[in-house]
Amino acid sequence: MLPHRPMSERREIFVRDHDWVRRALMFEPRGHDVMSGAIIYPAYRDDCDFAVLFIEVSGCLPMCGAGTVGVVTAAIEEGLITPRTAGTVAIETPAGRVDVSYTIKDGFVDAVRLHNVPSYLHQSDVEVEVPDLGLLTVDIAYGGNFYAVIEPQRNWKGFEGMTASQIVEHSQRLREALAGICDPVHPENSRIRGVHHAIWCDVPLSNGADGRSAVFYGDKAIDRSPGGTGTSARMAQLHAKGRLSVGEHYRNESLIGTIFDGRVEGTVEIGPFQGMLPSIGAWARVIGHNTIYVDDRDPLAHGFQIR
Hints:
- This protein is an alpha+beta fold.
- The protein has helices at 7-17, 19-26, 65-77, 164-179, 228-240; strands at residues 36-41, 50-56, 59-61, 88-93, 96-105, 108-115, 120-130, 134-142, 146-150, 185-186, 189-193, 197-202, 211-217, 221-222, 249-253, 259-270, 273-282.
- The chain is built from five helices and 17 strands.
- It has a 15-stranded mixed sheet that branches. A two-stranded antiparallel ribbon has the order 10-11.
- It comes from Rhizobium metallidurans.
């Protein structure tokens, strides 16, 4: 369906010519508001085992950490790919190459460590006026997607007393307000630009975590996982501010209590920015198989949304 081109170009071609596939899979009645997926392709790069296009309700992402953990787990267990080196895979994503190591236990993928794309703090202490919240100070960080990183402050005290719906509403208003004052562009890939995600950060509930977060993406979605690219962006922000050093871990807890084990693997220059190399330890489980039909006789064949 897509020509044999780099994944960053394939992503643009898919969005331009084949976006009905994403809508049919992600929208109702086959999907839902927080649906996401991954499509496996042969790699264009010689140094990668396979390529992945990440899809969700709002579009095609440059990178998805939780999606990578899931697609590696499923692809290995189902025999969809054959790694050149057992225990490791190199994946071509629209954001670049990512390396993943995994362990097998009793015939299943037990755990995964994702070595994500180089991440960095793009802009710090951005002041933005958000309706119903007031003035917020946020950082803009990149971890595979650009994020607004929000920590507790005068006009946002943290998660206590807040519902997921309220976080979504605040995130929508924050993103709209930021769009008028901030348009980050990746220094090495101009196809990646704009703040489309937000990560709200607070103290953890679990003794085994260092922080707790809610990742907002799409139109009205809160990530059920701690967020792979979000955790990477959070670590990049902390590292740039001298609060997380090379070799240190940042265990990020989701709203449902699951934890990603982040670690700063090293430092790297990303254009004019000093960045870091993040890794994420996580797991996924295959919970089913599905056969999807798209019938052109159906007036709702390509899906629908209720806003």
